[in-house]
Amino acid sequence: MPKRVYTRHDTAHNLWEVTAEHFPLDLPPDELVRNLGLFETPMTTARTLWFSHLYEKAAQTTGAIIEFGVYLGRDLVLWENLRSIHEPGYRSSYRRIVGFDTFQGHVGSNKADGDFDFVKDGSFQIPDGWVDSFLSYVRARHDVTKEPGLVLVGGDVRSSFTEWLRDNPDTLISLAYLDLDLYLPTLHVLQELKRRVRTGTVVAFDEAGSLGYPGESQALNEVFPNEPVHRFPLGNWSYIQVGE
Ligand SMILES: C[S@@+](CC[C@H](N)C(=O)[O-])C[C@H]1O[C@@H](n2cnc3c(N)ncnc32)[C@H](O)[C@@H]1O
Predict the structure, then answer these.
(1) Domains of the chain
(2) At CA 208, angle to CA 51 and CA 78, rounded to 5?
(3) What is the pTM of this model?
(4) Which of 14-18, 30-34, 163-167, 174-178 bottoms out in mean pLDDT, i.e. has the lowest?
C-alpha cells in the first residue's frame, strides 16, 4: 500500500506518525485486539463518538445504514458494534448495514476535487484479496454474535448504487454515510438518495467543509442547498437531517 503523507497541522491531533513509528510489533494478536486503545488518537476516539451520535439519530427511524466508501471496512464493523450497543433488542435484520466501494480505490476524480493527494484516482487501494479476507472475518464474528451478514456492493457507485436501488425497491434508509471524498461520485449518490430518503433520514459527511476535499461540500451544496448543515461539536464532521 502507498505510504500516506499527513499534513503538519493534522499531526498533533492524529498522532499517526508517532503510532506508526513506535508500534509495539511484538504484541501477540490476542493482546493486540484487547489493547486497541493503545493506538487511539483524539481524532479516532472522537470519530467513534461521532458515529455513536449519528446512530442515536438513525435509531429513531426505520431503515438501513448505508456507507459509501468502505476502504478496509473499519467503519462497517463500527456500525455493527453500535447496532449491538444501541439496539440490542431490535431485530437487526431490520437494520441492514450495506457498504459500497469500488474496492480498487478512488474512481471519478475531477478538477472540483482540488489537488490534495488523497483525492486522486487510485488513492485508497486495498491489498489484494482483502474483500474475501474481510468477508470471512465478519462471517466468523457473526457466528458468535448471531448478527445477519453485512452487504458489500462493489463497483463505481455511479452505476452500482443506481442498480442496487433498482434491485432493492423495498429499502428504507435511516442513515447514509458519505466517505467517497470525490465530487462526482458523491454528487451521484446524493442525487439518487434525494429520490429515496424521507423526512428524518440522516445524511452524514466525512469531509463536508474540509478545504482538502472541496468536492464533497460542492455536491452537498448542489443537491441539498437548503438543509441546515449541522456540525458534530467534538470533531470536524457534519450531517443533514432531511426535511427537518
Ligand atoms: C476515505 S476512503 C473510505 C474510508 C472508510 N469509510 C473507512 O472506514 O475507513 C474512500 C473510499 O471511497 C472509495 N471510492 C472512491 N471513488 C469511488 C467510486 N466512484 N465508487 C465507489 N467507491 C469509491 C475508495 O475506493 C475508498 O475506499
Answers:
(1) 1-40 (no CATH), 47-241 (3.40.50.150)
(2) 20
(3) 0.93
(4) 14-18
Bridge-based pairing of strands 202-205 and 151-154 is unpaired
Phi first, then psi, for residue 112 (nearest 5°) are -65, -15
CA nearest 223: which of 201, 200, 240? 240
What does the pLDDT look like over 175-228, one tens digit per residue?
999 999 999 999 999 999 999 999 999 999 999 999 989 999 999 999 999 999
Residues with CB under 6 A from ligand 1: 69-72, 74-75, 100-102, 105-108, 124, 156-158, 179-182, 185
* pLDDT at residue 8 in the model: 46
- Residue 4 makes CB contacts below 8 A (sequence gap 6+) with 16, 118
Phi, psi of 198 (to 5 degrees): -135, 175
Cβ pair 66, 179 in contact under 8 A: no
CA of 74, closest atom in ligand 1? 8
The cell numbers describing 60, all together, are 429513531
Ligand 1 atom 18: residue of nearest CA: 156
In angstroms, the CA 38 to CA 172 distance is 38
